[in-house]
Structure formats: C-alpha cells, structure tokens
Design a protein that fits this description.
DNA-directed RNA polymerase, four-stranded antiparallel sheet, alpha+beta, DNA replication, transcription, DNA-directed RNA polymerase activity
Length: 457
C-alpha cells in the first residue's frame, strides 16, 4: 500500500451500522478460536467464488456486447474490514483479476458491497475538487436485513446474538412472507437470500427495475411491509387498521403466520406457561374485563391433559370470538394482532430505504462465529439449519483431507461449501445474467433503431 492509499484508508475509516461488528475493536478480541488471517488466506485462495461474485456485480456488463457499459463495475463500491483495525471504504475494480487479487492480498475479515455510483468511488476526491456534486449513488440492489435480536421480546429460548432451532424458524417465516410479496406483489424475480453468518438473514433483490429504484420508491416498498407501530415500551406493538386485513397481510396470516404461531411458537417458546409471560399477552387486549376473566381462568390451579399453552390459547380465542364480546369493536382483531406481534418479519427499515447502505457480501466468513454466509433457498428454507453451516476451520480441514488440486471447482466440490456455490450459480446467477443480457441487447437494439430512424428522416 503506497502513501496516498494509506492516507485514503485513514480518511475513510468509517463504521457502517448495518450488521457490522465494530471494526475499530482489536481483532484479537473478536476472533473465535481457530479463526485467523492464515485461514482466510487459504479460504480466499482456494474456496471463495471470486468469479461468481464478479459476474454478479457486472450484471452482464462484461464487455462481450457492444451495448455494455464498460464503466459499470468500476463504479461499484466494495468495502473491506481488515485484520489490522482498518475499514477500507470506496474500493473499486475494473476486472475480475483486480477484484480477486485485491481480496487475496488484503484477506478482509468482511467484505461489504455498496452502491454503483455516478463516478468511480476511488476517484471521488478528484471529482469533489471540481465543485460539482457528481458523486452520488445511482444504482443499488433493493436490500433487506432481518436480525433475530429484534425478536428478543417474543422469544424466550435465546437472547442477543444467540440462536437455536427453536427460535431460528422466525427467520424462516420472514423469508416466506417477504419473498412471496416481492415476487407476487411487486413482480421481482431475481432474489437472493443469504444467512448473515450469525443471527439473521439478508435479502438482495437484483432485478434491473429494483436496482434503479429511487430512495423514495424504496421507502414506499419498505412501508408496504410495515405493521410495527409501537416501541419497546408499548403494550401493543402491532396495529392492524381497517375493518379487514390488507390482502398481503391476509395472505401472510392465512398461509404462514397463523399455523406457525399455533404449531411452533406456542409450544417452543411456552408463551402462556407462566404469569410473567401471559401477562404480556393480556396487556394487548383492550378490554380489561375480558383480560381479567382470562387472568382468573389462568390463575386457577388445574391439571390439564393437553399442553398448558395450547389450553390457554384456546380459552383466549373462545372468549374473544364468543357472542358476548362481538359488540366490542377491534376486540376480535386481537387474535390477529397477537399472532402478528410474535411472528411477523421485523425489518431494519433504514437499510432498505436508502441506496448508500452497505451489506455484507455472500460467502464472507463471519468473524464472530467463523460461519460462511451461504445462500438460502426460499423454496426450502424450512430445511436450513444455521448450526450446520460450514465454518472456516471445517473448510480448511476438508481441503487438507482432499489434498492439493489444480482445478478450483474440483477443490470446492470436495468441501461442504460446494453445494451452496452450485445453488448460487444455478438458481440465482445464471437466470439473472440471462435476464441482464436480454435487457442490454434490447436497449442496444432500441438505440440502433432510433439512430436509423433519425438518419432516414
């Protein structure tokens, strides 16, 4: 690194707040056993799918068609968190070789991907000196960040960054609800879901029309998903307005949320098993006389053959749906609001609203867990087990056992990461690139036709 680059590094040591650990913290304090720069060197040298990331970020602008934009990749921001407390922002590359060489040389603990800017982000200072405000994001995937720590008030098995197979299904539900809406309600097709490596999931919507959305349009889509109106001190965090549910919410409730709540959450989280837990639900009922009647039932010492959570939930539903409370407007809506409170996706809204947010690249290794950020198939997301995701040390052991190979794909297939990379290629990347090349071809032909029309005129 030369002096100018070092000065830029110091100048650009900025911390992004999205799913980021504090890069300024001494890395010795955040690295788990068996995770070190030497392991990363082998991982980036032998396993990391550099060419696939390059093809994805090009979106068909690979120079193989006269309609390609040769500056497209060079205007994309990459950011690296290094092992010497430096956070490098505004890195840019013009070729697959440059990108791969830089990753292998720097061995970043984390790779973040930012927007495509109007100019090369590495040269932004030169443009700033002209006095024109030309350095601005012009394209960026529509992204969503869902963190299980935001569910801590409705999960009792874990808290903070801890996860288990009892609470992880909350992420599965989020994937199902958001993915269906993005495809059916907004018409997006090229959607990538990725495990964050520790406690959540990321979503990349990569259709051309999604990448070109303005901040205002992104905010509108984000608000489409919003149902949480309260704060951490509110008894009632979900407000479902109107006499009937919006069709999107009704579909989510019927197809996913209701069965998940009654089949999983009630039993796995034991949400009605103790007074402390059931009081939180009683506080969500706006009629105190109804809440008091339920409290009286639940405080009685009775032995039940069925699970206590199921028994109490059936009692709650029976009372709220009974004839004597039908006249109370909004009371029967409590059932839906309780279920939404415990199961509906909790998005980091600010991440999705603005183009300039960074998001961790797929196939990075999380520095807290050593797990690889692998794609998740939304059609089979119930099968995804975060505790079984390949770790850095596991991959290196697999490579050592397989011996030295000249062919990188062959080496990859000999590791437990091979399946994830093949899914990324076949189910996401190939259909995406086919669509991108068709879009580039169509735009190019349209420009040619316009040119011919102007000449003939």
């Amino acid at each position: 690194m030369n002096r100018e680059e070092a000065e830029n590094c110091r100048e650009d040591m900025e911390i992004d707040g999205n799913d980021s650990e504090m890069p300024a913290q001494r890395h010795a304090d955040i690295i788990p056993d068996g995770f070190n720069a030497n392991y990363l060197k082998a991982y980036y040298g032998k396993v990391f799918p550099h060419s696939d990331i390059f093809k994805w970020m090009c979106y068909g602008h690979d120079g193989k068609h006269p309609g390609c934009d040769p500056t497209y990749l060079s205007r994309r921001e990459f950011s690296f968190t290094l092992d010497n407390d430096i956070y490098l922002r505004f890195q840019s590359y013009t070729s697959a070789y440059e990108l791969e060489s830089s990753i292998k040389e720097k061995c970043p603990f984390k790779i973040d991907i930012g927007p495509v800017y109007s100019v090369n982000p590495a040269k932004r200072h030169a443009y700033a000196q002209t006095g024109d405000n030309v350095f601005t994001p012009v394209e960026r995937e529509l992204i969503f960040d869902i963190d299980i720590t935001d569910y801590d008030d409705v999960r009792f098995c874990c808290s903070g960054a801890d996860i288990c197979l009892d609470c992880w299904p909350l992420m599965t539900v989020a994937i199902k609800v958001i993915d269906t809406a993005l495809r059916d309600d907004f018409g997006f097709n090229h959607i990538l879901w990725v495990y964050s490596g520790r406690r959540g999931v990321h979503c990349w919507v990569c259709d051309g029309k999604a990448r070109r959305l303005s901040n205002e349009q992104r905010a509108a889509i984000t608000d489409y998903f919003r149902v949480y109106k309260g704060n951490e001190n509110s008894n009632k965090k979900v407000s479902l307005v109107g006499p009937v549910l919006h069709p999107f919410l009704a579909r989510s409730y019927t197809d996913v949320l209701k069965d998940f709540f009654e089949g999983k959450v009630l039993l796995n989280q034991n949400i009605l098993s103790t007074e402390e837990k059931y009081e939180k639900i009683l506080e969500m009922i706006p009629d105190e006389s109804v809440a008091a009647e339920l409290r009286g039932k639940w405080q009685e010492k009775r032995k039940a053959k069925d699970d206590i959570n199921v028994v109490r939930w059936e009692q709650l539903k029976s009372l709220l749906y009974s004839g004597k409370v039908k006249h109370i407007q909004g009371l029967r809506r409590c059932i839906e609001e309780i279920i939404f409170s415990f199961t509906y996706p909790r998005l980091d809204m600010e991440v999705s609203k603005h183009m300039n947010h960074l998001l961790k690249a797929p196939f990075c290794v999380h520095p807290k867990t050593g797990r690889v950020c692998v794609p998740i198939d939304p059609n089979n997301c119930e099968e995804f087990d975060p505790t079984a995701v390949p770790t850095l040390s596991q991959l290196l052991q697999e490579l050592n056992m397989s011996g030295s190979r000249a062919d990188m794909d062959d080496e990859l297939d000999r590791t437990s990461l091979g399946r994830a990379v093949r899914y990324f290629r076949s189910s996401f990347l190939q259909p995406l690139l086919k669509s991108c090349k068709e879009e580039i071809e169509s735009a190019y032909n349209s420009r040619l036709q316009q040119s011919k029309n102007s000449l003939s005129w």
